[in-house]
Write a structure and sequence with these properties.
Elements (H helix, E strand, L loop, with lengths): L1 H22 L4 E3 L5 E4 L20 E2 L9 E6 L10 E5 L8 E9 L6 E6 L9 E5 L8 E9 L8 E2 L1 E7 L10 H28 L1
The chain binds calcium ion (CA) (2 copies).
Length: 208
């Protein structure tokens, strides 16, 4: 009997942890990952994809060019994967000079005409810092890009990002994450199954 009680308690604790984990899931999730990253330029192997690889040890770094006073980092979510992004994050790198100061987040569906979605000017510079930005947008776009027009490396020499995230509220649309009530029902079923199994073992032990 004590083994049965221990099994039931163990099951309930495991279910509680699972429920708590589901409840504490991130409020926003990043939709980048399977798309294609590109940039106006890169250097020293710090390519555009490195800003979307979930690795803070890698980065995108634009090529220094005095004749190119602006830089962009673009993400193509792919045909059929258009999303209405109203929140994003930028993580800067350890390069003191390569910090973004003025930029615009833009959206597009043809990779030609760009709609300004969020503009930042005179942003405080901070190395290796993740900052989230939000704005109003109900339009789904396939392409998003960060268009940088001023950096800490005068005159607009280069810019670098460790990570860029395009964020949507969690759970993502179409995902089937169980509610707390559904988790409770699952716990009850598992506990009852364990009780039934324990009784069977008990009967077999007694009859043996
Ligand atoms: Ca990511
Ligand atoms: Ca990275």
């Amino acid at each position: 009997m004590s083994a049965m009680i221990r099994s039931c308690v163990g099951t309930m604790v495991a279910c509680y942890v699972l429920s708590a984990t589901a409840t504490m899931a991130a409020a926003y999730v990043d939709v980048t990952g399977s798309g294609i990253a590109s940039a106006s330029s890169d250097q020293y192997g710090d390519v555009a994809a490195h800003a979307f690889d979930d690795d803070l040890g890698t980065r995108w770094r634009s090529y220094g060019d005095l004749d190119q006073p602006s830089f962009w980092l673009k993400y193509d979510l792919g045909a059929g994967n258009e999303r209405a992004i109203a929140r994003y994050s930028l993580t800067t790198t350890y390069f003191v000079n390569y910090q973004p100061i003025d930029w615009e987040l833009q959206g597009s569906n043809d990779d030609q005409a760009w709609t300004p979605l969020h503009t930042v000017t005179d942003a405080p510079t901070a190395t290796s810092t993740r900052t989230e930005y939000s704005y109003a947008n109900d339009t789904a776009y396939r392409y998003y890009r960060v268009f940088v027009t001023e950096t800490g490396d005068l005159p607009n020499y280069a810019v670098s990002f460790g990570e860029v995230e395009l964020l949507v509220p969690a759970p993502p649309e179409g995902a089937a994450v169980p509610t707390l009530g559904e988790w409770g029902a699952l716990c009850l079923v598992l506990a009852l199954a364990l009780v039934a199994a324990s009784r069977v073992r008990l009967v077999r032990t007694v009859s043996a």
